[in-house]
Write a structure and sequence with these properties.
Low-confidence stretches: 1-37, 558-575
Distance between the termini: 111 Å
Number of helices: 14
Number of strands: 26
Largest sheet: 10 strands, mixed
Structural class: alpha/beta
Mean pLDDT: 90
Length: 575
């Protein structure tokens, strides 16, 4: 009995061992064959999409499919290969589909996905120190050749977001969307749009602001962030730095009268509060500020609690405090005593975008608004004198530098899902480029919103343009609307309107709901429907109270008659 039990136990153990060996052999076989036939690769290419092919049994050859696959896509190898015209193709699976792909387009290292080694500059580019921050290394103009040495990431369509480049020893990072594959493509222009603007000059005179040939007319895709929809019809109240002291009464007035947005000053002569970037880059600015950080934090919190779209306004080049700290960045001219940081200065660009970044991180606004995005009013006289040093390092025209600053600012700020708007003089909606570098179509082509300033008392003193606000603004708005049709990707035209009394011209004008409303209606009648902002430099509460109902009017297309007296049940003018 005992012997029989021992034999039985031995047989059981042997059976287990045989079974285990069988399982191990099976696992080994399965593992070995899976690693051989089901290995994955990445599709690589010299462009955003990799070429894929199918085999035609009738023709007995490969045909390229009508739809390529974005490079970077992961595919599964099979054991099948095919050779045609000296090239080897591998059969791969992508989802449920099977394709032939060139063997050279299959890589295991994600760094090898991007196979192009050179590009040319189609739209002049800022060179960044790295792909993460706004630090500027240099600037490269249209038509130049770049050697590619790396990339940061692929977009959904397989194109590169930013390339690491080497340009004659200048190394850094540039946005891929501004680069093309050939020198001929780089030197091409957007001919249809360029033709509209190329011959525009001011009465045959050179204002020294530049020409259309200096500007980029290729479409610039304005973003639409799902987590931050852009304001398409603004009814905006402007609040200067001091007004934050009595914020609640402004918010109450705004809520009761149809205001949907607040434009809050961050920098205009002084900072609203202290900022780390100012301590680093403009120490004097950090000693002249309006409020303690906690007070501004609380004000922003209240504005956002009430549901207002928040626009943070930053004056860019008219900055005496920064200029005092950095005279090397300022224009030198015998024609002016102003301390004016140059629009060509990359240090000034960097400071203002760093400030915008810190504002975004601290206050999470919907939009950054840049004001004084221009050279000084005296620019024509400065240029004519021949004795002015504009600090023009990269041989740009004034209008070119202004547009290039906006490219730089938009590209960086958009990373935070925040929009960029720019304030401009009303004059720049004319058919010429201004002496101070502003031209409405060129700016609208890049900025997400453009806020011109057709103030009724700014069109001259010999002809009364201020008592009939409707006619003055409507005449301007028609020119603005025409400029918007002359580019492929216009930003929103959102306009600053006169929201102050005009006591210094005769006859005098009081800004009330009718006067302000006439200006707003003039915009909409001309097709400029992006809304408006109330400009009152001191944020005069009494005047805001006088015109308050006009924020909430329904400005549909009407007769254009400025003398309207029909009231609704709230006692407000209706249109």
């Amino acid at each position: 009995m005992r012997r029989r039990r021992i034999i039985r136990a031995v047989l059981v153990v042997l059976g287990v061992l045989v079974l285990a060996a069988g399982i191990a052999a099976a696992v080994y076989f399965i593992t070995r064959t899976t690693s051989k036939s089901a290995t994955t690769r990445f599709l690589a290419s010299t462009s955003g999409a990799a070429e894929v092919y199918v085999y035609d049994d009738y023709e007995k050859r490969l045909f390229r499919t009508s739809t390529d696959i974005s490079r970077g896509t992961e595919v599964t190898l099979t054991d099948e290969t095919y050779t045609e015209n000296g090239r080897t193709y591998v059969v791969v699976k992508c989802g449920e589909e099977t394709f032939y792909v060139k063997e050279t387009c299959l890589v295991t290292d994600i760094n090898d996905i991007v196979q192009e080694k050179e590009k040319w500059v189609r739209t002049s580019v800022t060179v960044y120190e790295n792909y993460e921050g706004p630090e500027i290394v240099s600037f490269i103009k249209k038509g130049e050749h770049l050697v590619l040495t790396g990339y940061d990431e692929l977009l959904e369509d397989g194109n590169v977001n930013m390339y690491e480049i080497d340009y004659n020893g200048i190394k850094g990072w540039v946005y891929g969307k501004y680069l093309v594959d050939t020198e001929k493509q780089a030197n091409a222009i957007n001919e249809e749009i360029y033709a509209i603007h190329k011959d525009r000059v001011f009465g045959g005179s050179d204002l020294h602001g530049g020409t259309a040939a200096d500007l980029d007319w290729f479409p610039y895709e304005h973003p639409h962030f799902e987590d931050n929809p852009i304001l398409e019809d603004a009814r905006c109240m402007y609040l200067n730095i001091k007004s934050l002291e009595t914020l609640e009464r402004y918010l109450t007035l705004a809520k009761e009268n149809g205001v949907n947005s607040i434009c809050m000053d961050i920098k205009d002569g002084q900072l609203v509060t202290q900022f780390d970037c100012a301590a680093e880059l403009s120490p004097t600015s950090n000693t002249v500020y309006g409020h303690q950080p906690e007070a501004v934090d609380a004000a922003v919190k209240r504005i956002k609690e009430e549901g207002f779209y928040l626009i943070c306004r930053i004056v860019v080049f008219n900055d005496v405090l920064y200029g005092g700290d950095h005279p090397e960045a300022c224009i030198d001219s015998e024609e002016s005593t102003q301390t004016w940081p140059s629009g060509y200065s990359r240090d000034v660009w960097y400071y203002n975008v760093r400030l915008a970044e810190e504002v975004i991180q601290r206050y999470a606004p919907n939009e950054i608004q840049f004001d004084y995005v221009r050279f000084p009013e005296e620019s024509y006289r400065m240029s004519e004198s021949g004795t002015t040093d504009f600090k023009n390092v990269y041989d740009e025209e004034k209008c070119e530098a202004i547009q290039n600053f906006l490219f730089y600012a938009c590209d960086y700020i958009h990373r935070y899902h925040v929009y960029v708007s720019a304030d401009v003089f009303a004059e720049c909606a004319g058919k010429y480029i201004s002496a101070y570098g502003q031209y409405f179509p060129a700016i609208s082509n890049v900025a997400d919103a453009v806020s011109a300033m057709p103030y009724t008392d700014h069109f001259g003193t010999t002809v009364d343009t201020w008592t009939d606000g409707y006619t003055t603004v409507n005449d301007w708005a028609q020119r603005c609307a025409a400029r918007q049709t002359e580019i492929e990707t216009p930003g929103i035209a959102r306009t600053w309107l006169t929201c102050y009394n005009v006591p210094w011209w005769r006859p005098t004008v009081t800004c009330d709901e009718r006067y302000f409303g006439d200006q707003a209606r003039a915009l909409y009648d001309a097709g400029v429907t992006g809304g408006f902002l109330s400009w009152n430099g001191i944020s005069n509460y009494t005047i805001y109270e006088q015109m308050a109902p006009a924020w909430g009017f329904n400005y549909g297309t009407g007769t254009g008659d400025p003398l309207r007296t029909k009231l609704n049940d709230r006692g407000q003018l209706t249109y």
